[in-house]
From TrEMBL:
Species, as recorded: Flavobacterium tagetis
Methyltransferase keyword on record: yes
InterPro entries listed in its UniProt record: Alpha/beta_knot_MTases (IPR029028), SpoU_MeTrfase (IPR001537), TrmH (IPR033671), tRNA_m1G_MTases_N (IPR029026)
Highest taxon in the source lineage: Bacteria
One GO process term, biological-process aspect: methylation
HAMAP family: tRNA_methyltr_TrmH
Family matches, as PANTHER family: RRNA METHYLASE-LIKE, TRNA_RRNA METHYLTRANSFERASE SPOU TYPE DOMAIN-CONTAINING PROTEIN
GO MF, any single term: methyltransferase activity
Similarity comment: family membership: Belongs to the class IV-like SAM-binding methyltransferase superfamily. RNA methyltransferase TrmH family.
Coiled coil: none
Record's catalysed reaction(s): guanosine(18) in tRNA + S-adenosyl-L-methionine = 2'-O-methylguanosine(18) in tRNA + S-adenosyl-L-homocysteine + H(+)
Protein name listed in UniProt: tRNA (guanosine(18)-2'-O)-methyltransferase
């Protein structure tokens, strides 16, 4: 349960404009779609995908680091790591199991004989969109466990796009369609409260000292 008194205490430190921006952004956040990237070697590509998630309203990014241990490139992410939830996994199986337990269908974004064009994709089901590297694509484990396959229509000679470009195109298209639909795609009231608290803490300098002072004055 969220400590509403603590939330109010922190938000009183923020400007009215900051608090209004939080509510405006959270109004457009969704977990109906989530994004997963698998063993992306170039660190800046994962960071760029996170930035696209933030810009287009995807709240959670799942990062599989089975082969390459990475850190988020803050310069590329441009602060997006403060507003997007990062779920890290050290195995493909762990990520797949977690997402399936949350009710997501697994969608591999790759050309496939049973693939679906982006504009024809059924947005009604909660979906985890998986992206692999441009060179190697997604692993066999993900392909074998996928519930569907999605690709971007292309009419040129080049048959693939950089992962960050592909993710931006797909996320922008699907989230725009989602917001025009009658689907219940928004965060719950409880999820919004959780994000308000976290974002307030991320916005306040010396938060540890302020938090200690609050709980000294308001013992549990």
């Amino acid at each position: 349960m969220i400590d509403l008194d603590y939330l109010a205490f922190l938000e009183n430190i923020l400007t009215d404009n900051r608090k209004a921006n939080f509510l405006k952004v959270l109004e457009n956040r969704t977990k109906h779609f989530t994004v997963a990237v698998e063993d992306v070697y170039q660190m800046h590509n994962t960071s760029a995908v996170m930035r696209s998630c933030e810009v287009f309203g995807i709240q959670e990014l799942n990062v599989i680091e089975q082969r390459f241990g990475k850190r988020i490139d803050k310069e590329i992410a441009l602060g997006a790591q403060k507003w997007v939830d990062i779920n890290r996994f050290d195995s493909v199986s762990g990520c797949l199991s977690d997402l399936k337990s949350k009710g997501y269908q697994i969608i591999a974004t790759t050309p496939h004989e049973k693939d679906c064009m982006l504009e024809d994709f059924d947005i009604t089901k909660p979906s985890a969109l998986f992206f692999g590297t441009e060179k190697e694509g997604l692993s066999k484990e993900i392909m074998d466990n996928a519930d569907g396959f999605l690709k971007i229509p292309m009419v040129g000679f080049t048959e693939s796009l950089n992962i960050s470009v592909s993710a931006a195109i797909i996320i922008q298209s699907l989230t725009n369609r989602l917001r025009r639909s009658d689907i219940d795609w928004k965060l719950s009231e409880e999820e919004i409260l959780v994000k308000r608290l976290l974002w307030a803490k991320n916005s306040i300098k010396d938060i540890k000292r302020i938090e200690e002072r609050y709980y000294q004055d308001n013992p549990r």
